[in-house]
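Attaching the record inline, Q. Sequence:
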Amino acid sequence: MMKLLRAVALLYISAVTETGAMSPNGIVSIKRSIDRDITNEDLLQEEAPNCNFTGTVVLGGPFSLEQGDKFFTIGSNQLVSYNLMVDYINRFKCGINLSTGNYAIELRSYDDQSDVQWTEVIAQKLAASDVDIFLGGYSSTLTKPLAEVAHENAKLLLAPGAASTPVFDGKDKVFGTFPPTNKYLAQAVEGLAKVGAKTIATVWEDAAFTRGVCAAAPDLAETNQLELTSAQEVIKTPNITVLEMVAQKLAQEDPDVVVTCVYDCVPWMKAMRNVNWSPKAQVFTVCVGLHDFTTEVGTDADYIMGVTPWDSSLNIQDSVTGLSAKDFADMFKTQTSELDVTYHAASAASVISIAVQALEASDTTDEVVLSQHIAANNFKTIYGDIGFDSNGQSKSPSLLIQYDTSGIVQTVFPEEASSGPILYPMPSWDRRDCIRLSQCNTSGGTCTEEGKCVCQISDKYHAVGSGETAECVPNERLNFISTSLLGVGYFLVSVVLVLAVGILIWVYHHRKNALVKVSQPLFLTLVVLGSVISSLSIIPLGLETEYRDSYDINMIDAACMAVPWLWGIGFAVTFSALFAKVLRVKLLYTAASKMKRRKIETKDVLSIMVVVLVIETSILLSFQFVSPLKWEREVLDDINGIAIESVGHCESESGWWFFASLVGFNILCLFYALILCFQTKHIPSDFSE
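Structure, as predicted:
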């Protein structure tokens, strides 16, 4: 009874951490296996079935385990996948089932610190240990020294994170679940060519994997009839400053597609943002689907494409665990709380399954037999139906994936495996900002490709800003003088002109009439002309414009100064003529009252006109040259700094001094006119004013 119960017991998983002395900081080593001494029997106090493990098969390799390691994010995801598969197989499948018994899987992990030298040191340690099968971590750069040590020591290596062909060349016991670098981009280039892309450019950092992936672009471009505009290598782990210069160059080339082969995609995204340029399609070899990537760039990830050998929507099932791709993705999310499960994690899970399938099918741990079996067969895993080419690399093609407008990763090519369409072309940054961040749509507009806002009710609203600041605001109320008021003003000017012409004609026609002669026709004419000049100031008063950048601003500035000139000169002519006329009559009657005969000619009184005009003109000239009136517009109301109501008027920094001088002088003239009139109050009405 105890043995039967032990057969269904829940197995306890233990993890032991050791610190070595290989560096001043020590190297973290994690051993994960199964404790066969603690089972459900201990919990339930009754006998449970036992898997009766005969021994242990040891799998081990280097991984990036520390937070600061370059490949920590992907490396830690790989390790989680290894642990999930090892735990599941040990607990629910009684480990590896060979003819000699059940063998528990033991996983040993060493922190490589994302460093080539440490990886080689760890590989040598593994080769000298009892590890049966080597497991690779992430990147071709770190996998290469591990592969070389495995080959030198005739060890089997399963590498889930390397795609560079030189890693596998000439090594018959080294296998990789990534497709070769020269096939990585095949589906991406073909799919983009089918949706209309014509030109392509590549950027890669100085590393084996990234260089190898982008190196295939020229041949793929030629095959799909695309023009390769440029191919740019940058330093290893490039920063934003380095990439900005590349982005500026590409902005001038403006290729339809840019393939960026780098391990950290965020600096390139920021570099494109900084130069405000993006291609119609941006393809990364890594990053798409990584939670850290979307956390860093936010909604900028929308439309970004990537290449992947796997997607959780694939209809596949693992032969060892029975898990589907979706089952594994759900387990991974539960374990890590990650929102997305990338192909790196699925690839890592697949090598555990491949190892178990090969061991059980070969019924041995002999490296030669195992490697021959792996090379000759396909393996159904949650990563897909995996087979290997003559170089030991996966024959499965990559998929083209893309973030949709909701930030969800979709498989977009090939069509038979797609979960959504290719979103091409990718909108410009300004258009994306306009759509997502601006008030354009909420204010009744639509965003153009340039990120401008097109207002639907164009007679009431107008567009301002671009990108994030694009929006529709109410058309500005400029508070121009109403048309009806202008009409009244111009009508009255017309009336004055008509009356003036009529009066002048009447004076000329009756110039020999005794009463007209006594009224002095010359001065009557000057009074009429002065009145006309003053009345004409109404015309420039009605001239207005918008802001100082208006095309007609010089004309409006001139109109501003025309008002005081017309009004002042008109007033001066009118009253100086009146002064001269009254003064002449006064002089004549003063002489007559003294019984003297005196002839007062016109020239004798013109001096008063000259004096008045000179003073008036002097004030106006000073006004004109020192602080002239200029058109200005004052904003009365605005929305986010955009004026929606304003009023325009003529302004001068010191204008009130000159206006005060003009008004003061004209008031003095009026007082003088009153004095003259008072002094001539006894003159017969035919001669007085």
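The first strand starts at residue 12 and ends at 19. The CA atoms of residues 497 and 592 lie 39 Å apart.

More tomorrow.
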